User: Fold LysR family transcriptional regulator from Microbacterium koreense.
Amino acid sequence: MLDIGLLRTFVAVIDSGSVVAAAREVGYSPAAVSRQLARLQRRLEVRFFEPDGRSIRPTADALAFVVRVRPLLEEASRFEEFSRRFSVIREATGVGEAT
Assistant:
């Protein structure tokens, strides 16, 4: 199973066009973002970025992958919000507590 954090970092790099800018966005160092990208690429056995001077350019595989990843991350965010609200409701109502 893929780590949601890796996918979020991948999308941040795609959106920002830069490892450094993505690192600022996700709160990691550029080196950590590069390691995450390398891990994701190894895991999927694909190359998502190519060097382009001092920056990187997404490959066709990266652009195809991000189309599928975005809805997954949106749903994960909705589920995280639901989970937070569910926990608050459980605490407020006592639902699920042992009797």
Q: What stands out?
A: The chain has one domain: 4-93. The mean pLDDT is 91. The chain is about 70% helix and 10% strand.
